[in-house]
């Protein structure tokens, strides 16, 4: 059975929607629908199909409209009627009333449901429940990204309000003739967490002179050595007179690891760093290339315990030779397709029953061939969610140790301890730790640097980006940092980015045994296989 097109028209012959499943022009479809109106008008039978010399129209009237299935005359009429029934059911699920404007409003959803029923002109073996399930699927990654974007917008809006309020307050006090130093000391009362300072300010010093406010604040808090050094190195700003142009605000947004300005900045932690590791180049294909690609997400506690973990994977096929396109992929015997924890899902054109019974990935129609345009095609996907304290999906174990500095207030000694998990026996490459603090007062302790780590760059959006060398299995690695932060929690969450392209096996255990011909029994095709792994949302909280 080959379905050429499916259309919705009015009883008077006006086309509303049409979806072509073969290479047919719009003018040809319009001509066929016009012929249908003439055949229906001249038909006196009670059948729900009409034919001309080459085309069969299987139709169903509903209200003031027709839904029409256009096939050739050699098509099985029983299957055509069943397909038309499925089309009608999917369409009815989107329409509350049969109104022309409502059909247009839901055109995209209706046509999408038609695409689920027919693929390349052939009906898929799907029920109406399965079709509705596929159409209603939501993307977990998209939801997470939307939440992250909303949080960023909210934080940016709050920061703009705070800065605008601060600038307005300073400008107002400057116009009133209050010295700039007094403005700064008054702000200390507002922002201080010391209850004694807050009570003193509310009870008396809010109405006292700027000199009295400054004197009381300095008597309560002697500046630390780091603060004094910052005050000495900070440029002095002279208050401007009434005729001046005011203060010029601005600053650099991107700081290299060296030559930083002598002033400290901090930003609130973001849910996920925006820095991304560049994608590797497209690997060379010698004929058949099978890629097992996996990404892992995890939330790890500071003590190394695993709170949540998730693994996603796909098996992708690339073929650039037509003679190798009629093939089937045979997985290793250790792969259990019925393992519900991995949640395997095959491509709609793959024979799912064959995969479940024998771990073989093959097309439903053995007469067809895989695409041979050297483009990647995902034929199998899987997903696994780990339970709490489950390290089986964790390729990199990480523990953090944070302690305040004995000599400098607001400075912390951070130690990152990490090693490749025993379940993943391959090198970790392009490893980065991203600490969400924007400060120039940071350095790596040379006595605790096993992987030649270095500060790659520092910026407001990401914070401190630390790059390390490759991490090999069986080695314990340590990086020690001295970093300035307002408090310990400001150092978290630490985002971890990495990838691996030299793995001999995947975390899930999915591995290709051979690629055989689907037409000639006993003939194997040569192929190359690669395994890649990358971190998706890997954070230490």
TrEMBL record:
Compartments, as annotated in UniProt: Cytoplasm; Cytoplasmic vesicle, COPI-coated vesicle membrane; Golgi apparatus membrane
GO cellular component terms, A-Z: COPI vesicle coat; Golgi membrane
Main subcellular location: cytoplasm
Highest taxon listed in the record's lineage: Eukaryota
Membrane topology: Peripheral membrane protein
Domain MHD: 285-541
Functional note: The coatomer is a cytosolic protein complex that binds to dilysine motifs and reversibly associates with Golgi non-clathrin-coated vesicles, which further mediate biosynthetic protein transport from the ER, via the Golgi up to the trans Golgi network. Coatomer complex is required for budding from Golgi membranes, and is essential for the retrograde Golgi-to-ER transport of dilysine-tagged proteins.
Family to which the UniProt record says this protein belongs: Belongs to the adaptor complexes medium subunit family. Delta-COP subfamily.
Protein name (record): Coatomer subunit delta
């Amino acid at each position: 059975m080959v379905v050429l097109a499916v259309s919705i028209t009015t009883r008077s012959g006006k086309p509303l929607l049409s979806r072509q499943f073969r290479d047919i022009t719009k003018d040809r479809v319009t001509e066929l629908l016009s012929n249908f109106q003439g055949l229906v008008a001249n038909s006196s039978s009670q059948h729900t199909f009409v034919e001309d010399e080459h085309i069969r129209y299987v139709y169903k009237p509903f209200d003031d409209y027709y839904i029409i299935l256009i096939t050739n005359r050699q098509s099985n009429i029983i299957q055509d009627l069943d397909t038309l029934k499925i089309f009608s059911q999917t369409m009815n699920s989107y329409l509350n009333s049969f109104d022309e404007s409502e059909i247009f409003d839901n055109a995209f959803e209706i046509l999408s449901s038609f695409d689920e029923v027919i693929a390349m002109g052939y009906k898929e073996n799907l029920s109406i429940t399965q079709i509705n399930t596929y159409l209603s699927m939501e993307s977990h990654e998209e939801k997470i990204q939307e939440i992250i974007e909303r949080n960023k917008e909210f934080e940016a809006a709050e920061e703009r309000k705070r800065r605008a309020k601060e600038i307005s307050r300073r400008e107002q006090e400057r116009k009133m003739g209050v010295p700039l130093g007094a403005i700064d000391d008054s702000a200390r009362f507002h922002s201080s967490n010391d209850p004694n300072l807050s009570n003193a300010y509310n009870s008396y010093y809010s109405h006292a002179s700027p000199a009295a406010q400054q004197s009381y604040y300095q008597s309560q808090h002697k500046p630390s050595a780091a603060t004094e050094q910052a005050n000495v190195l900070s440029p002095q700003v002279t208050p401007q007179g009434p005729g001046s142009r005011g203060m010029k605000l601005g600053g650099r947004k991107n700081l290299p690891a060296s030559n930083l300005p002598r002033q400290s900045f901090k930003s609130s932690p973001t849910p996920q760093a925006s820095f991304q590791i560049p994608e590797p180049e497209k690997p060379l294909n010698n004929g058949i290339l099978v890629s097992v690609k996996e990404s892992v997400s995890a939330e790890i506690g500071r003590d190394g315990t695993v709170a949540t973990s998730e693994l996603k994977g796909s098996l992708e096929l690339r073929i650039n030779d037509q003679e190798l396109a009629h093939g089937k992929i045979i997985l290793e015997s250790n792969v259990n397709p019925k393992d519900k924890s991995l949640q395997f899902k095959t491509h709609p054109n793959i024979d799912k029953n064959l995969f479940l019974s024998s771990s073989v990935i093959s097309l439903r129609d053995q007469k067809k061939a895989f695409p041979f345009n050297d483009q990647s095609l995902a034929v199998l996907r899987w997903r696994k969610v780990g339970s709490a304290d489950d390290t089986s999906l964790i390729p990199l174990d990480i523990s953090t140790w944070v302690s305040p500095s004995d000599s400098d207030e607001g400075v912390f000694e951070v130690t990152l301890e990490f090693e490749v998990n025993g379940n993943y026996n391959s090198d970790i490459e392009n490893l980065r730790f991203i600490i969400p603090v924007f400060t120039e007062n940071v350095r790596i302790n040379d006595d605790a640097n096993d992987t030649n780590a270095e500060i790659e760059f520092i910026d407001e959006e990401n914070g401190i980006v630390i790059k390390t060398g490759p991490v090999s299995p069986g080695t314990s690695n340590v990086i020690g940092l001295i970093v300035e932060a307002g408090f310990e929690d400001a150092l978290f969450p630490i985002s971890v980015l990495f990838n691996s392209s030299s793995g001999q096996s995947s975390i899930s255990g999915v591995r290709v045994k051979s690629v055989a011909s689907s037409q000639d029994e006993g003939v194997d095709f040569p192929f190359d296989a690669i395994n890649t792994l990358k971190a998706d949302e890997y954070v230490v909280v």
